[in-house]
Amino acid sequence: MRSRIVLTSAVAGAVLLAGCSFGWRTGEQAGPAPATTEGAVATAEAVAKLRLGNNFTEMSFRMNLDLGDRMTAVAWMDNPRKRFESSLKASGGVTELRVIDDACYLNLGTGATSNGEPIGWFRLDLERIPADFRIDFTPGHNDPGGSDRLIDAIVSAQISGTEIGGTIDLAKIGVGSGVSVPPPKDGQWPEEAHRQPFTASLDDRGYLVRFALSVNGADVLLRYGDFFTPVQVEPPPGAIPAPDPLYSLLGVVPA
Asked: Taking the model in full, what pTM does it have?
Protein backbone atom coordinates (compact mmCIF):
# COMPACT_ATOMS: atom_id res chain seq x y z
CA MET A 1 0.00 0.00 0.00
CA ARG A 2 1.33 3.43 -0.89
CA SER A 3 2.11 5.65 2.10
CA ARG A 4 -0.39 8.36 2.92
CA ILE A 5 1.24 11.56 4.17
CA VAL A 6 -0.69 13.84 6.49
CA LEU A 7 0.67 17.33 7.18
CA THR A 8 -0.49 20.28 9.21
CA SER A 9 -1.29 23.22 6.93
CA ALA A 10 1.56 25.27 8.40
CA VAL A 11 4.13 22.59 7.68
CA ALA A 12 2.79 22.03 4.17
CA GLY A 13 3.13 25.74 3.46
CA ALA A 14 6.66 25.86 4.84
CA VAL A 15 8.21 23.15 2.69
CA LEU A 16 11.55 24.02 1.06
CA LEU A 17 11.73 27.51 2.53
CA ALA A 18 8.71 28.55 0.51
CA GLY A 19 7.60 29.71 3.91
CA CYS A 20 4.40 31.42 4.80
CA SER A 21 3.97 33.91 2.02
CA PHE A 22 1.74 36.95 2.08
CA GLY A 23 -1.32 37.82 0.09
CA TRP A 24 -1.81 41.52 -0.54
CA ARG A 25 -4.07 44.11 1.03
CA THR A 26 -3.87 47.86 0.68
CA GLY A 27 -1.52 49.72 2.95
CA GLU A 28 0.95 52.57 2.95
CA GLN A 29 1.45 54.04 -0.49
CA ALA A 30 4.92 55.17 -1.40
CA GLY A 31 5.64 58.18 -3.53
CA PRO A 32 6.14 57.85 -7.29
CA ALA A 33 9.41 56.59 -8.66
CA PRO A 34 11.73 59.31 -9.91
CA ALA A 35 11.11 59.96 -13.58
CA THR A 36 14.25 62.05 -14.11
CA THR A 37 17.43 60.90 -15.77
CA GLU A 38 19.21 61.51 -12.47
CA GLY A 39 16.77 59.22 -10.69
CA ALA A 40 17.18 56.49 -13.29
CA VAL A 41 20.98 56.65 -13.00
CA ALA A 42 20.80 56.48 -9.18
CA THR A 43 18.52 53.45 -9.40
CA ALA A 44 20.80 51.66 -11.85
CA GLU A 45 23.82 52.30 -9.61
CA ALA A 46 21.99 51.02 -6.52
CA VAL A 47 20.75 47.89 -8.28
CA ALA A 48 24.25 47.19 -9.60
CA LYS A 49 25.66 47.39 -6.06
CA LEU A 50 22.99 45.02 -4.79
CA ARG A 51 23.72 42.53 -7.58
CA LEU A 52 27.41 42.57 -6.69
CA GLY A 53 26.50 42.23 -3.03
CA ASN A 54 24.44 39.07 -3.47
CA ASN A 55 26.80 37.25 -5.83
CA PHE A 56 27.08 34.22 -3.55
CA THR A 57 28.14 31.64 -6.15
CA GLU A 58 31.72 31.21 -4.90
CA MET A 59 31.14 31.64 -1.19
CA SER A 60 29.49 30.25 1.92
CA PHE A 61 27.12 32.24 4.10
CA ARG A 62 24.30 32.20 6.66
CA MET A 63 20.80 33.42 5.86
CA ASN A 64 18.07 34.45 8.30
CA LEU A 65 14.52 35.13 7.16
CA ASP A 66 11.71 36.50 9.32
CA LEU A 67 8.25 36.73 7.75
CA GLY A 68 6.34 38.80 10.27
CA ASP A 69 5.18 36.62 13.15
CA ARG A 70 4.37 33.71 10.84
CA MET A 71 7.72 32.09 10.23
CA THR A 72 11.44 32.28 10.93
CA ALA A 73 14.13 30.42 9.05
CA VAL A 74 17.89 30.05 9.24
CA ALA A 75 20.02 28.44 6.56
CA TRP A 76 23.69 27.78 5.98
CA MET A 77 24.80 27.60 2.35
CA ASP A 78 28.28 26.54 1.21
CA ASN A 79 28.34 26.80 -2.56
CA PRO A 80 32.00 25.81 -3.19
CA ARG A 81 31.71 22.67 -1.03
CA LYS A 82 28.11 21.93 -2.07
CA ARG A 83 26.65 21.81 1.43
CA PHE A 84 23.35 23.27 2.63
CA GLU A 85 21.31 23.03 5.81
CA SER A 86 18.20 24.91 6.94
CA SER A 87 15.68 24.99 9.76
CA LEU A 88 12.31 26.65 9.39
CA LYS A 89 9.98 27.33 12.32
CA ALA A 90 6.27 27.95 11.83
CA SER A 91 3.20 27.37 13.97
CA GLY A 92 2.98 23.76 12.82
CA GLY A 93 6.51 22.82 13.88
CA VAL A 94 10.03 22.77 12.49
CA THR A 95 10.95 21.77 8.94
CA GLU A 96 14.56 20.83 8.18
CA LEU A 97 16.28 20.54 4.82
CA ARG A 98 19.78 19.33 3.91
CA VAL A 99 21.51 19.20 0.53
CA ILE A 100 24.85 17.42 0.13
CA ASP A 101 26.23 17.43 -3.41
CA ASP A 102 23.22 16.16 -5.41
CA ALA A 103 21.44 14.49 -2.48
CA CYS A 104 18.51 16.31 -0.84
CA TYR A 105 16.95 15.37 2.51
CA LEU A 106 13.78 16.73 4.10
CA ASN A 107 12.36 16.34 7.62
CA LEU A 108 8.83 17.70 7.94
CA GLY A 109 8.99 17.66 11.74
CA THR A 110 6.06 17.92 14.13
CA GLY A 111 2.67 17.13 12.66
CA ALA A 112 3.85 14.95 9.78
CA THR A 113 2.67 11.33 9.78
CA SER A 114 2.61 8.41 7.38
CA ASN A 115 -0.18 5.85 7.88
CA GLY A 116 -0.72 7.39 11.29
CA GLU A 117 2.91 7.10 12.41
CA PRO A 118 5.36 10.01 12.85
CA ILE A 119 7.89 10.19 10.05
CA GLY A 120 11.50 11.35 9.97
CA TRP A 121 13.83 12.12 7.09
CA PHE A 122 12.94 11.72 3.42
CA ARG A 123 15.41 11.58 0.54
CA LEU A 124 14.15 13.74 -2.34
CA ASP A 125 14.81 13.63 -6.06
CA LEU A 126 15.98 17.17 -6.88
CA GLU A 127 14.67 16.87 -10.44
CA ARG A 128 11.11 16.43 -9.14
CA ILE A 129 11.15 19.58 -7.02
CA PRO A 130 9.57 22.63 -8.74
CA ALA A 131 12.41 24.68 -10.20
CA ASP A 132 11.52 27.89 -8.35
CA PHE A 133 11.83 26.08 -5.00
CA ARG A 134 14.84 23.91 -5.76
CA ILE A 135 17.87 24.49 -3.54
CA ASP A 136 21.13 23.50 -5.18
CA PHE A 137 24.49 25.12 -5.94
CA THR A 138 23.83 26.59 -9.37
CA PRO A 139 23.16 30.30 -10.07
CA GLY A 140 19.53 31.13 -9.43
CA HIS A 141 19.10 28.27 -6.94
CA ASN A 142 21.96 28.94 -4.51
CA ASP A 143 20.39 31.67 -2.38
CA PRO A 144 17.61 30.35 -0.10
CA GLY A 145 16.54 33.92 0.70
CA GLY A 146 15.46 34.69 -2.86
CA SER A 147 17.25 38.05 -2.97
CA ASP A 148 17.57 37.94 -6.78
CA ARG A 149 13.80 38.19 -7.12
CA LEU A 150 13.69 41.10 -4.69
CA ILE A 151 16.37 43.00 -6.60
CA ASP A 152 14.62 42.30 -9.91
CA ALA A 153 11.46 43.93 -8.49
CA ILE A 154 13.07 47.25 -7.53
CA VAL A 155 11.41 50.29 -9.09
CA SER A 156 13.58 53.10 -7.69
CA ALA A 157 16.57 53.26 -5.37
CA GLN A 158 19.16 55.61 -3.95
CA ILE A 159 22.53 54.92 -2.27
CA SER A 160 23.66 56.59 0.96
CA GLY A 161 26.98 55.10 2.03
CA THR A 162 26.30 51.42 2.70
CA GLU A 163 22.52 51.97 2.88
CA ILE A 164 20.13 51.66 -0.03
CA GLY A 165 16.47 52.65 0.02
CA GLY A 166 13.69 53.05 -2.47
CA THR A 167 10.55 51.41 -3.78
CA ILE A 168 9.77 47.88 -4.92
CA ASP A 169 7.00 46.37 -7.03
CA LEU A 170 5.44 43.55 -4.98
CA ALA A 171 3.73 42.20 -8.09
CA LYS A 172 7.14 41.37 -9.60
CA ILE A 173 8.56 39.41 -6.63
CA GLY A 174 6.64 36.23 -7.43
CA VAL A 175 7.03 32.94 -5.56
CA GLY A 176 10.00 30.70 -4.87
CA SER A 177 12.47 29.85 -2.15
CA GLY A 178 12.70 32.65 0.40
CA VAL A 179 10.41 35.67 0.25
CA SER A 180 7.27 34.91 -1.78
CA VAL A 181 4.44 37.28 -2.68
CA PRO A 182 1.69 35.49 -4.64
CA PRO A 183 -0.88 37.59 -6.51
CA PRO A 184 -4.25 38.48 -4.96
CA LYS A 185 -6.93 35.85 -5.41
CA ASP A 186 -8.71 38.01 -7.97
CA GLY A 187 -5.45 38.71 -9.78
CA GLN A 188 -5.86 42.47 -9.39
CA TRP A 189 -2.99 44.31 -7.71
CA PRO A 190 -3.85 47.68 -6.12
CA GLU A 191 -1.81 50.58 -7.41
CA GLU A 192 0.16 51.02 -4.17
CA ALA A 193 1.51 47.46 -4.44
CA HIS A 194 3.72 48.60 -7.30
CA ARG A 195 5.59 51.21 -5.22
CA GLN A 196 6.21 49.89 -1.72
CA PRO A 197 9.21 51.08 0.36
CA PHE A 198 12.24 48.88 0.97
CA THR A 199 15.63 49.30 2.62
CA ALA A 200 18.83 47.32 2.20
CA SER A 201 22.28 47.35 3.78
CA LEU A 202 25.74 46.36 2.57
CA ASP A 203 28.71 45.64 4.80
CA ASP A 204 32.05 47.41 4.41
CA ARG A 205 33.10 44.80 1.81
CA GLY A 206 29.99 45.37 -0.29
CA TYR A 207 28.15 42.16 0.60
CA LEU A 208 24.40 42.29 1.04
CA VAL A 209 23.60 41.84 4.74
CA ARG A 210 20.03 43.09 5.05
CA PHE A 211 16.90 43.57 2.90
CA ALA A 212 13.67 44.73 4.56
CA LEU A 213 10.19 45.51 3.30
CA SER A 214 6.58 45.28 4.43
CA VAL A 215 3.98 43.00 2.85
CA ASN A 216 0.36 42.82 3.89
CA GLY A 217 1.10 44.78 7.05
CA ALA A 218 3.86 42.38 8.17
CA ASP A 219 7.56 43.17 8.34
CA VAL A 220 9.75 40.96 6.17
CA LEU A 221 13.44 40.88 7.09
CA LEU A 222 16.12 39.01 5.13
CA ARG A 223 19.68 38.93 6.52
CA TYR A 224 23.01 37.44 5.45
CA GLY A 225 26.28 36.91 7.35
CA ASP A 226 29.07 34.48 8.34
CA PHE A 227 30.55 34.87 4.86
CA PHE A 228 33.21 32.30 3.88
CA THR A 229 32.61 30.16 6.97
CA PRO A 230 32.69 26.47 5.90
CA VAL A 231 29.45 24.56 6.42
CA GLN A 232 29.59 21.03 7.82
CA VAL A 233 26.55 18.87 6.99
CA GLU A 234 26.11 15.11 7.34
CA PRO A 235 23.50 12.88 5.65
CA PRO A 236 20.74 12.06 8.15
CA PRO A 237 20.64 8.41 9.16
CA GLY A 238 17.66 6.32 8.15
CA ALA A 239 16.37 8.58 5.38
CA ILE A 240 13.84 6.85 3.13
CA PRO A 241 12.83 7.71 -0.44
CA ALA A 242 10.09 10.32 -0.51
CA PRO A 243 6.71 8.88 -1.61
CA ASP A 244 4.99 10.35 -4.64
CA PRO A 245 2.30 12.29 -2.69
CA LEU A 246 4.95 14.43 -1.02
CA TYR A 247 6.13 15.93 -4.30
CA SER A 248 2.69 17.40 -4.99
CA LEU A 249 3.08 19.53 -1.84
CA LEU A 250 6.50 20.94 -2.65
CA GLY A 251 6.25 24.56 -3.66
CA VAL A 252 2.77 25.02 -2.20
CA VAL A 253 2.53 28.70 -1.26
CA PRO A 254 -0.69 29.71 0.51
CA ALA A 255 -2.08 33.14 -0.30
From this structure: 0.85
